[in-house]
Specification:
By secondary structure, the protein is of the alpha/beta class. The protein has 3 domains: about 160 residues, ANL, N-terminal domain (Rossmann fold); about 190 residues, Rossmann fold (3-Layer(aba) Sandwich); about 130 residues, ANL, C-terminal domain (GMP Synthetase, Chain A, domain 3, 2-Layer Sandwich), CATH 3.30.300.30. About 40% of the residues lie in helices and about 20% in strands. The chain is built from 21 helices and 26 strands. The strands form 7 sheets. It has a 5-stranded parallel β-sheet with strand order 4-3-5-6-7, sandwiched between helices. Helix 9 links the parallel strand 10 and strand 11. Helix 12 packs across helix 14. It is globular and about 75 Å long. The mean pLDDT is about 95.
């Protein structure tokens, strides 16, 4: 990364790198025929961002005005984001999976004057609630379609015409707006995904973002040869920091996946150098490797199975397992050069120099497996409220079972009750229009109360032990953190999601869901057929689940054991409102939705 002056905003960095890397590729997306990739250069990127900024100014955008973005990941998301901020506006991301009422809440609560939406479906969410959005004066649709000639609705072409008029009258308006940005000015309001209650809007300033990217790049420097694959929601600060701000800072490339389902194919094309994914995605990668091995010819399968056995053994050495013998180590190295290299290339991760797992708890054995595969995945920890990064596992010093050490510029300490507190220039100034929430988040000394529980070891590595609000206090007054138990249950072959229940109850119970792909693979091996709902009640499947629960129980104290459990007929989903867009369980929603089943688990 070229050196940036201290306190330089992400907008300043964007314009500097656009001038520096003009004809080089910046953003790539699948071509319309699906056969190749369209490239947007840094020159074209800068021109489009300038048009967004100048067009908004022509419409009357003032510094500090809020502008929403309701869209999936695509290059127009970046154009809108950088354009809004370059004009002195404040970006308000909205999850595209939100319902119309949720969209209206975020746009209304933040007082958005303008909004960008992806397509007609997203536009309809806004139009349905237009009466609740008195501040909203104009919406721009990325994929406009026909029949929408209206003063309230436009597209990027309309915005470009407005920009041409503004730039003809004031050619330097965008540069002037950018130069007027100060560290204390708001850059974005990011609303939490709302695992409990109404989402809260974390106010992040240009200074917060600048501090955060400076903290990160002192651990992982980035440069123009870096490539990022964008597929997790840009509305979440982690993905935005990685493939939006990270790409701007690096001067490299961001490739946009077509969908979550296309990620394996898109990875092979992109071959990212820095890659971030949530635990569920890493689990799917491992399952995919195992499934692929099953399809190989007998000699190839035997070699691959021997390699994976050594991978698991070698990965456990990172924990407390026995080391490989000299013969096994030699065998591992030979197979890694043959089988391992092929697997890494087929995953599209053979060029990656930093792999990240974050946003939810992950089982250490999953990370050990990837380490054994010579794909060292590092856990990273942070919150929306501090731009997404508190601690990182540094390259070459990854400690599995921890989320790393505090990044430079950030302080971490553990409160008397075990809560993790953090402080630094990356920490939010508070929640927008929410004084009570802000007072609960930030104390008088500037410490941010994360709500997470953790411990710090002698080397200053942080381990997360649970969520403060999720603590279960059983009928006997015993404090139990369900997070580790749920993570361990999800590591079992057939189990997709686990929600442990037991607050005020005499024992723990669990709601479990089954992984569709793993279940179909099980069915093929056991000559079964039928829909997931039928397989979920198959006696042999339930016996395997019972065996899994028993294995997990043996690893925990008796009071932490799952006494009774129930397998739901379908998996938890984002669309169903049971998971956040980053695949975290909305515990309160699940508890309310399946209250009758939970009560039955405590019936005599």
């Amino acid at each position: 990364m070229a050196d940036q002056p201290p306190g330089t905003s992400i907008v300043d960095v964007f314009w500097g790198n656009a001038a520096r890397y003009g004809p080089r590729p910046a953003l790539r997306r699948r071509s319309a025929d699906g056969e190749g990739w369209e490239t947007m250069t840094w020159d074209d990127y800068a021109t489009s961002v300038r048009h967004v900024a100048a067009g908004l100014v022509q419409l009357g955008l003032e510094a500090g005005d809020r502008v929403g973005i309701l869209s999936g990941n695509r290059r127009e998301w970046h154009l809108a984001d950088l354009g809004i901020m370059s004009a002195g506006g404040v970006t308000v991301p909205v999850y595209p999976t939100n319902s119309s009422s949720q969209v209206a809440y975020v746009l209304g609560h933040s007082g958005c004057r303008f909004a960008f939406v992806e397509n007609i479906d997203q536009l309809s969410k806004v139009l349905l609630r237009r009466d609740e959005l008195p501040d909203l004066v104009r919406v721009f649709v990325f994929d406009r379609g026909d029949g929408l000639d209206h003063e309230f609705v436009g597209d990027l072409e309309d915005l470009e015409h407005l920009a041409e008029k503004e730039l003809a009258e004031h050619p330097t308006v965008v540069a002037e707006r950018t130069a007027a940005i100060h560290n204390d000015d708001l850059a974005t309001i990011v609303y939490t995904s709302g695992t409990t209650g109404r989402p809260k809007g974390a106010m992040l300033t240009h200074g917060n973002i600048a501090a955060n990217i400076d903290n990160i790049t002192r651990v992982i420097p980035v440069g123009p040869d870096d490539r990022f694959l964008s597929f997790l929601p840009l509305s979440h600060i982690a993905e935005r920091t990685t493939s939006d701000f990270g790409q701007v800072l690096a001067g490299g490339e961001t490739w946009f996946a077509e969908s979550l389902a296309s990620v394996p194919t898109d990875l092979q094309a992109c071959r990212p150098t820095i890659f971030f994914a949530v635990p569920r995605v890493w689990e799917k990668f491992r399952e995919g490797v195992r499934e692929k091995v099953e399809t190989l010819s007998t000699p190839q399968r035997q070699l691959a199975e021997r390699y994976l056995n050594l991978v698991a053994r070698r990965g456990r050495v990172t924990g407390s397992g026995p080391e490989l013998s000299l013969f096994e180590l030699a065998q591992y190295k030979a197979l890694d050069a043959l089988v391992g290299r092929t697997i890494r290339a087929e995953l599209g991760l053979d060029k990656a120099r930093y792999l990240v797992c974050a946003a939810a708890p992950v089982h250490p054995d999953l990370l050990r497996w990837f380490h054994g595969m010579n794909l060292p995945v590092a856990e990273v920890y942070g919150q929306t409220e501090n731009c997404g990064v508190t601690t990182m596992n540094p390259p070459g010093a990854i400690r599995i079972g921890t989320v790393g050490t505090a990044v430079p510029g950030v302080e971490v300490r553990i409160a008397a009750d075990g809560e993790i507190l953090t402080r630094g220039r990356n920490v939010t100034t508070g929640y927008y229009r929410n004084e009570a929430g802000t007072a609960e988040l930030l104390d008088d000394e500037g410490w941010m109360h994360t709500g997470d529980l953790g411990t710090v070891d002698s080397q200053r590595y942080l381990a997360i032990t649970g969520r403060k609000k999720d603590l279960i206090i059983n009928a006997a007054g015993k404090n139990i953190s369900p997070s580790e138990i749920e993570t361990r249950l999800r590591y079992e072959p057939l189990i997709s999601q686990a929600v442990v229940v037991g607050d005020g109850r005499p024992y723990l119970t669990a709601l479990l869901t089954l992984d569709d792909e793993a279940l179909h693979e099980w069915a093929a091996h056991h000559q079964r057929s039928g829909p997931v709902e039928a397989l979920a009640s198959d006696p042999e499947v339930l016996q395997e689940v019972a065996d899994s629960v028993e294995r997990v129980n043996r690893e925990h104290a008796r009071v932490e054991g799952i006494k009774r459990w129930h397998v739901l007929a379908h998996d938890l989903t984002v669309a169903g409102g049971e998971l956040t867009p980053t695949l975290k369980v909305k515990r309160q929603v699940v508890a309310e939705r399946y209250a009758d089943i939970i009560e039955s688990l405590y019936a005599k």
